[in-house]
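As described in the Methods, two query proteins were run sequentially through the folding procedure within a single session, without resetting any intermediate state between them. The first query and its resulting structure tokens are shown here.
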Amino acid sequence: MKISLKPQHLKRYRQITSLMLRFGFSELVRSSGLEELLGEDLGKITQRAHPKPAEFARELEAMGPTFVKLGQVLSTRGDLIPVEYIKGLETLQDDVEAVEFEKIEEVIHEEFGQSIAKTFLTFEPTPLAAASLGQVHKATLPDGREVAVKVQRPGIRARLADDLDVLDEVASTLETLTQFAERYRFKGIVDEFRRTLMRELDYRTEAQNLSTLAENLQEFPQLFVPQPVEDFTTARVLAMDFVKGRKITELTDEDRERIDGPMLAETLQKAYMKQFCIDGFFHADPHPGNVMLMEDNRVALLDLGMVGRVSVEMRERFLRLLIALGEGRPEQASDLAVRIGHPGTDFNEREFRSRIKTLINAFQGAHMEQIQLGSVVMELARAAGDTGMRPPSELTMIGKALMNLDELGRSLAPGFDPYEAIRRSAIPLVLKMMRQNTSPAALLGRALEVNEFANQLPGRVNKILDRVAENQLEFRVRSFDEQELVQGFQKVANRIAHGLVVAALIVGAAMLMGIETKFKILGYPGFAILLFLAAVAGGLALVWDIMRHDRNMRRK
């Protein structure tokens, strides 16, 4: 089948196809026909080895801002990307080429209607950091307050829109022609990516995120969230508190001696668990560049362009899932994962449960402080994707955040045990959840649900009775393997029959004991003894069969 894509995007198609081939999706490319775009270069590309995680990140960075952001989004898709590549994509945050200062001046003038000199008291031309969508400069407001000013790259909106069209066309082609892309909903990934980028391009949304997070974390004085300056914030410019500090991952042994590292690590873990389980709103990208140790030994959380939201139903299940994973309970973890996810028509539940059991057993012998809990969650998401279940996006985003928290916690305190911190905070979190569930607003919501149920109940009952009367009522049941089920019933029936025969032999032997005969064994009636010995042999055979079967089941 021939592909139909826009010729003006040919260069981008070739880049994407080449990357997919080298990343290991050669079968996907061939099934969709995208390999036709490469022509004579196809042989050269397929002969090269799959790229290492760092190399994959560098190639995305070379393709421009859109693909840098795509890499950040892919790093939250544990069901699609292996854990080692997720860690490699962390390097996408650094070393992005800065925009010329003259272009930054133009953006400031367009947003505020006046020059930088009239808007700010001072404005340093050299950026503090350069990201894929914008860069940050240090400045001083007219009242003397030091701020960090985030300025969007000029022309970035048009460039992103063009690249998003390319990704949408490629995803649609792949999803139409390949089962793999359909299972993982490539088109849905691109659509979600588009919505995420559009939100990030409006810095007023990030300003609101900063304010919301600071309010939610008021009970943690050791944490600091820079606040936006409303009068100096627009869709393309964001002014916020200036933070002096250094990356937590760059701390030396001397730095750790002057701070209470274990306390800060546990506070950070508790704060994020509160975000996941109570607030339902969390900082989704706490990579080392976005979490800093300030001069006053507080921890600052920066860059809230990417945030996650957790539904009320998901919060409790996620906490229970973490506890089940840490306690080594594969059955409970599998049950919760199935309830959290969205099983497809081809979902292989038996294989999924087997993968979860193997995953949990793999770290049972290790000390919990050596286990990266975030990696375990991402591996769980990977197992779900491989077996036909789509994990919710918030689960993979939380897994990615936990991976970063594992690294940050051990940078603050090398012996830090993240799971133990989660276990200590579990009871307070559950109590807060219970208080939330019994709040006036929650009770009112339940009352409205009951009212809606009562109003709709008569109509639904009438529909059921009508279908019963017309013989149109159908039930859909997810059954077990019929052959295995029949074999199980047959084995049970055989054992029952065996037991009845043994019982009959014993009863017969007992009845014959009272009848005197010339044939005797050990002074007892011979036929009675023979029946008794036959009953003993049959009983031993039955016991042996049961023990052998149970032993084989334990081995399996």
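Immediately afterward, the second query was submitted; its sequence and tokens are:
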Amino acid sequence: MSPSVLMHFAGVGLVLLLARLGGGPTDTLFQAQAAGWVLVLLGLGLTVRRPDRDGGAGAARRWALIGQVLGFLGLVGVLVLSLDKLDALGLDDEGRSQAAVLLSALNALLLLVSAALLICVDRLRIASPVMLPASRVSTAAYAGLSVAFSLALLFPLNYLASENNIRWDYSYFKTASPGDITVGTIENLDEPIQAWLFFPSQSDVTEEVRTYFDQLNHPMLETAYVDQALETELAKELRVQKNGTIALVRGAGDDQQVQRIRLGDELSSAERKLKNLDEEVSKALLKLAADPKQAYVTVGHGEMYWKKSGAVLPARTIDGVKSELKRLNFKVSELGPAQGLATEVPEDADLVLVFGPTESFLAEELSALDAYRSNGGAMLVALDPGTKSDVSGLLSPVGLSYAGEKMLVGDGNFWGATRRITDRYNIFTNKASTHPSVTTLSRNSRTTALLTPLAAPLTQSESPPFKIEITVRTLDEVWQDTKPNLRFDAREEERKGWPLAAAISGTEEGSEAEFRMLVMGDATWASDLVLPLSKGNQEFLRDGIAWLVDEPSQSGSVNDEEDVKIRHTKSDEAWMFYGTTLLLPVIFLGVGLLRVRSRRNGGQQ
């Protein structure tokens, strides 16, 4: 490549790089682009002074001059945008934005045409320094122009795609879209939140994040994309060390609150986090929207607990419940005899949860829990059938009773976990009322259901002292196994929709605060064995908590795109093993033998 063209390209590259990195006319890096302008002008001067005048060499010189002049004009346009000189046109904000887009496109086109002309013509001139027909030079120049204008057709397409964010994705991977909790939290903010998205402009992760935040178009959420390398002061203030981070900010100065979500700027490492992006964003927004609430989980009576050990099965642990409470901005603590339950429930309790006790509470503990409920408390009680726990002290004051010795069984819609008859305990239902504690489950009843293994029905007194609404019933095919033998007996047993969950609310005499209570005739639905498998169970938990603490914005769905786990029984795995190692080879061998035999018979004929 000739010295004049090399100087031109070096100068153009230097100007564009320093204009990108510089922070304005007063910045040293920005001012250093003067060296690039000097190189461009020197390259143009060498071409002007070149002695080639006639024939192909003269044509090559003229085309090179055209290319360098076009590149110079493109750089002038870049300088105008860098110095923000469009205000001199007297346009409004929309007109100025449109002018900036047009000028950017024109600059890119001029630089592209300049580069194509210079490369094509200069390579031809160097390849044929002696015999260089003018017609060949013109042909090479026009070929370069054709390539440049063909590539330029991508500019408007790219601009339209960027502005309208239209994407076609046929792969399994997909970034989660905003769910009900995220949208509801933003709509109920009393102060705007600034979302600083630290991502490089040219990154696949940036486009995935843009797809998500474009759907959160709301005045209470201000979104800005920045590059950590260019906004070092802002990154330092928000404690963001590298790109690939979302910083959600509320307030300013000493009152500033920041929640950071680290994704990464490489798609291969960020895919899994992008699938759960809505869960992370909703969790961060909830922490910024309000102070954390306090939830207490009773212990000391054989309850389901989050701490796992070798002897405890996943059907008796509730680590998923604890994680969901934390995501909903709750502090989670134990509440048992050692924490003073026999005296009173702590005053800071916003929610008390009782999950599957297998032993009875002390009379003093029942009295403390009932006093908490009477004074406007919120309680979630999930009961475990077949245990000796006596919870009548919690249920009878509100007009409910529970006989857990006779469990509910179904032979139509159930979870076949073991492929045994005992799977009939694992019943599904999508029969939910319109109560706020089951809004999402009711709305999605066509596609989701509540899985309740080991459930027993609730019984409502004839004249309950408070408002009781049965929120979830079983399917009509379910019966109460009075034998028990897991088989329906039409003479003694009845198929119907049995009450599974009840929402109770009201105000005790002498109290001004309304209490709220949610009772479930099954506790295994919230266990670590079942909760991750059923979206309906997750929605039931979220909506129930949101209703109990009177936070409607926390109810609804959290969207994710996680792969669904495929579970196989031993019989399934046996079929897969013998099918792949024996059956398929036999089939292929048989087809091959038939083919060989048919060819032999054809040859004999």
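The radius of gyration is 36 Å. We note this only descriptively and draw no conclusion about the first query from it.
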